[in-house]
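Cross-posting from the modeling subforum.

Setting up a comparison between two proteins and wanted a second pair of eyes on the formatting. Protein 1 (sequence, then structure tokens):
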Amino acid sequence: MDKFTKLGDDDMQNYGSVLKRLIKFTNVKLSVVADAAGYDVSYISKWCNQSKLPAARVASPINKNLAKIFADEIVIQGELENFCSEFNVAVTEDQLQTYLYTLLKDAFKSTQAYYDKKSSKNADYQTKVLINPVEIASYLDGDFKNLILSSEGPAEILCTFDVCTLQKAQSNLSVGSPEPVDKEIRVKIGLNPGNLNRDTYLFLYYFISRYNYVSFDFYDNSNFRDRNMIVVKGKVALMCSLDHYGKIAMLSVINDPEKVDVIYSRINSLFKIHHLLIMSTTSDELVSSGYRSNFYAFSNYQIFLSRGFEYLLPPEIIDNIVEAAYRQGYDQATEKMLRTLMVTWEELFNNEKLDFFITKSALIKYIEDGEFYFTDIIYRMSIDERKKHIQHVLDICRKNDNVNFYIIDDEDIPYSNQDICFSIYNNYGKLFLKNTVRFYRSYGPQFYSILSEPIINGIAECIESIKSFPICVHYPASSVQTFMDQYGAMVYRMISLSEITTSK
């Protein structure tokens, strides 16, 4: 490492660099240096390459002998003037040996202090091996989460696991707290397409919903699924040994920053962009790529809404939505996009096949508060607007027999409503998910875009299978008016009661 050019540069404080430079300047053979030091040539090479130091007890006599060898050569070669210029020093022949000894001695002390400090520091970074299940769970739930939260800026995490194995290992492994944290967390995680079926698609949905504050990118991990590594950039690397049930039987914790950086770099290289299956993305990225505008160029849709009902809106409401957009800080470009989308929907929904899925609790809440998300805009309908919305739905259903509503009785779903956070939009060519919780905070994914055609088809089949669930009730377009004739009075009373609740 011969980087220095003048005395006073950092490398002049490194023993190996000083020794290497003196050898180069004097052109003394390593064998001569080795004889003067009383060590083998291989040792001299290791000193120069900074992999070893002379033992402290013999450093002083070694440096005295080396100083004499180098001083003699400089004088014999008539290079004193060049030496003084090169090393930025003014010395006479009589002073030269003493100066060289001091130079080597100070460099040795500086380097030894650095190694001692590094050794002491490394002692704090000993790899820990955990084998007790309680100990493993305690570490993951305590120290590991604290390391994630202590990251400056966004926490960057790599996980080579097939995420579906987390279903088996969830008793002692999580990617964060189920409780939202005020922290941006980005995770690259493995996904084995060969393991995907209806049950695993449902698991994936509840997984991203439960950790709705974490931005996941899912990669095909077929080539590295057995690595079983979790790495938090700049913090820690975990090596997991799994038992035959898929649970963590042994956990190796590596916290040496240098080792963690190397491991992170190597593991990160496994996550190839062309293996990306599901990507967290933003509204701006969807707009700039033309994704959102192209989405409605198809003729068959599956739409699952976890919050509100932003479709089949009366045309006149767009003016109020635009006003709300300006109040929320959006500009004219957003207004143009909103109005264009409204016109597109109005034409589309009069003819195309539309399957709407919505939970009963979400529908009741929408009737009560009128809140929905039109693209990125939060809008709360007035009582009058909600009544007009219902009427417009009835008008469209009379025109388009291809509209279907599927109401899911989520009271019988063995998950809390907190685990139903993402709306799903599918046209059988493109599919994306919208995080409805993201509207109320500045972190977490806004959207997930599905990049894999087989996964799009798999999710479509999974949603289609919901139709046969006992908890799902089908209301075709032709029956919506009958439903309102029977229950309309109750619905309108619920809407009217919301005015009393709001006024309080």
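Protein 2 (same layout):
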Amino acid sequence: MSEQIHIFDTTLRDGEQVPGCQLNTVEKVAIARQLELLGVDIIEAGFPISSPGDFRSVVEISKAVSEPVICALTRAVQKDIDVAAESLQYAKRKRIHTGIGVSDYHIKYKFNATHEQIIERAVAAVKYARKYVDDVEFYAEDAGRADNAYLARVVEAAIAAGATVVNIPDTTGYCLPEVYGAKIRYLTEHVANIDRAIISCHCHNDLGMATANTIAGIQNGARQVEVTMNGIGERAGNTSLEEVAMILKTHQLPYHTRIDSQKIYMLSMMVSKMMHMPVQPNKAIVGRNAFAHSSGIHQDGVLKNRENYEIIAPQDVGIPESSIILTARSGKAALRHHLQRLDYQVDDRELKAVYERFLVMADGKKMIGDEDLIELMEGIQRDKPIEIQHVQVVCGQPIHAVATVELSYRGEAIRESATGNGPVNAIIRAIDRIVGVPVELEEFLVHSMAKGSEDEGKVHVKIKHAGRSYSGFGIDEDVVMGSVKAYVNALNKVGEVQRARVVVATA
């Protein structure tokens, strides 16, 4: 039978400790709501004693979120616990997270205390927290470097005092997976009352092993994992939520989570944007290269069968599709794929000629985009019945847009004017009058190529003629001109472009 792994998200607490990535209360509430929709079980909303802003954030998250447990962090200090309890007053389900360092480094250099004094302070903190809430999590800070026998004593005492969850952090990211897994196993075998609490993993990524250690912890008895979106957090970061969730799903291990994986990518982008912390391109699951293929061998394999080179479907994490990136390393299969996507139909002989030109272009650029392919094909396919000569449009309120368009149509310059409910609609009507082809505009999409008011826009249109659809693409700094180019690009692909002046249906 599959066992549930409880997802404890600390993006808003440990993740927010990244320098320069602080969030305000409104932003924290927005992320908390999305974490609830994602399916996390516990949200660590903050460290209330640390600042009035953190206190306020815990209060507002408690009001805004109902399904997950809301958790507040404290030190093993009564004042901390008092403030945490107050911040959780509106939470439907509440937890206080308290603890103390247990490694010899912390005991000697941080607390200047004895091993017995640390146990006494741990017990006192848990008992005091239980006066406020029934759900108390105890963290044994720097457990990764602590002696296992002593750690077991601390954990047993904390559970006896009322802890419902015991957190075993690899605070410095020091442990090897087999060492951390063995530590969790040791606790399951040597803590007499361990059946009264859930063991939690909280791993850091200082040596790049946070996710591996967390999975090792699960395999050895842990049933809660403490994670962050995008793996953000103190120093090198925390265990990545998306990595753990997809490892458990992909390997079909005897464990499951409540995570709705199709919401992962959207939340990843939201966290990245709000925290002004870009996701590294090669980041597993959510990096922009996670489902991108540029090698010709890989591209050919993916196009034949996605599973040749992808163990996760991009749609499973909320990414629409894989990216076949055109570079000088791309092969004919990738080029044909993109040409077909742009509605350019080429046979094998034509493809060979196009590919030779493509390689020349690709050698001069890092990547080939749609605008480059359009330029390439326009240079090869000389038979273009329609060419744009002149476009002028006047629009504003309250008057209707008026467009004047001059096209070279089969070598003849023809000018027409038309009105419309906007500049693009007016231009399309004018073009339709010139060409006289009965087409229906099925799709009209505008995409920004980057950012900013002076950015180029890519326009995609789809038209239908005689039961067949044709796609057209246009690139221009002026969205209106980009629209004209896209519409003409589509019309030039229609097999029977003719002068017959007929009634057309335009959207």
